[in-house]
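so my prof wants the structure for this chain in the C-alpha cells format not the other one, which i didnt know existed until like an hour ago. anyway here's the sequence
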Amino acid sequence: MCLQFNIQDPKSTTEEPNGRRTDVLTMRVCICFKGSCEPFNVPPDQTVGALKQMVKESFLVQLSDDKEVREYLELSYGGAALQDSWALCDVGITSGSAIRCLIKSEERPVLHVFNAVTGETLPIMGSEALLHISVATLKTVVSVQSGLPVSTFRLSTPTGVQLYDCNHLQDYAIEVGTTIRLDTWDGWVEFLQGCLLGHRLTAQSHLSDKKPVMRFQLQVALCIAASLGHLDLADWLLERGIHAEEPVGVHPYRQWCHQTAHPDTLKCPIHLAAESNQLLILKLFITKNLLTLACRDPGGRDPLRIAIQHGHRDCVRYLANKLCSVVSLPNMSLPIRIYLQIKRWVSLGQRRAAFNRCQYNGVAFKARVGDKLLVDGFNQPNMSSKSRKAVAKPNKGIRAKPLQPLPPISNSPVSHLPSKKAPRLPSLQSVNAGDFKTTRENVIYCLTIAREALVEAAEHSTDPDQEACPHGGLIIKDPGSCSIQISHPSAQLHIACLLVTESRENHRSGGPAEDKRV
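here's what i got, hopefully its the right format
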C-alpha cells in the first residue's frame, strides 16, 4: 500500500491569549489510503511520529502488536526511512514533496539472552516451538551468536535457576519474551572480552595462574579466534603450542564428568572456522598442520562437508583444491588423502607411545588429587561472571617476623665474683612480636636492655683488666652488619637483630668507618 502526501502552502489563523490573531504557515497534506483522500493542514515543524499518529486516527489503521509479530508504519522520503523524532522541515521536505508510507511487520524474538560478558542482549528468533527444545540445543544457538564455546558459559532463568543441558525449556516454565542470563566462569570476564575483540595482550594478561586452567583458556581463545576471524590472535596461539585439530573440551573442574558434557565440546577450532566462513583462518590452520583437513566433528563431518552445508563457496573451493592435491616426497608422490591417513597413523602411534611413558600432554587436563570438582546441583558452579579483581584474594601484607627470644643467662656463679652473685640480665622472652610496630623500635629496645645489663655487670665486676666503656655505651664496629655482638668479662650477650636502613645510609654518607655509640 502507498500513501502519498501533496504538500502545499496554506495558512491557518490562530488566536493568542491576548486576543491577537496570527497567521501560522502550514502545509496542506493529502493522504491517499485505499482509494480515499483526506486533506488537512500540517505545520512544517511537525515530527514524523506525530504525522504517523494522524494517519492512524484518520484512516483507523489497526496495527498488530502481539508477542510474535509487530506491525508499524514507516515513512520514507527520497528512499530513506524517517525517524519518529525528526521534523519534516529538518529533512528537506518542501511544498509538493511526496512522502511514502508503508505498513511493515517484523517478528518478535521468542527469547532474549543477556550476555554478562559483553553486556549485550541477544535475540533468539523463531516460533513458539522453540520453547520445547532442549537446553543443549539452545546453548548451541547462543554459542553461534555470541562466539563463545559452550563450555565457557551457563544459562539461568531470571530468578537465578541454572538450566541444565539434559532438560527442556518447558521444564523451567519459560514463556515467550523471557530474558535468560548468560554467565561465565568467575575471573574470566576480562579474558573473554579480550578474545572477542582480538586483543592478544589483553587475553594474555588475564590468563589463569593454574596450568590446567590456563591450557583450557588458550584452547578457548583459539576457538573464539577461529569463529570471529582474529588472525593475529590465532597465529600467536598456534605458536604457543595450541592445536587447531584438538577439541575445546571442558573446564578442568568438570573433567571427571566429560561423558555427560555438551556434544559441542568436541568441536575443534578448524570446524568453527569452516562454519563461520573464515577463509584466512582456514589457510593458517592447514598451513600449520595438514591433519586439520581430516579432522571430524561430533557428527563425523570434515571441514569440507561443514563448509558445503553452510554454503560457503570460497571455503569449499579452497578445501576441495587442497584435498585434490598431491604431496611430493623423495622418489614418490602421494595423494593428499593417503598422505593424511599415513600421518594420522604416525601421530596416533606417537601419542600412544608418549602416553605409555607418562609424557602425554593430555595428562594435564585430567583431575588430580586436591583439584576442585563441580557436581551439578550440589555445589556452586563458580560461574557468576565476577571480574578477576573481585575473585582475586587480597594480598597479604608483609608481616614482621617475631623476635627470637634471647637464650637464658646461666645462673651459675662467676669465678671472679666470689663474694657477690652475678647479676641476672633481663630476659626478653616476655616481649611479643606485636609490641613494637617497626624493626627500629625492636632494635632500640634490645640495645637499651643490653646497655642496662652491662652497666649493672660493670658495677659488680672486680676484674682489674676489664676494658672500660664510658657511660656504659655499646661500641658498634660495623654498622652495616646484620648482627651485633657484645662481650664482657662477667657476661656475654649476643643480640641478633636487623639494622634499619638509616644506619647503612648514615654509614655510607659519613665517610670512613668509625666507632658509633648507641
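also thought this was worth mentioning. DSSP finds 14 helices and 18 strands in the chain.
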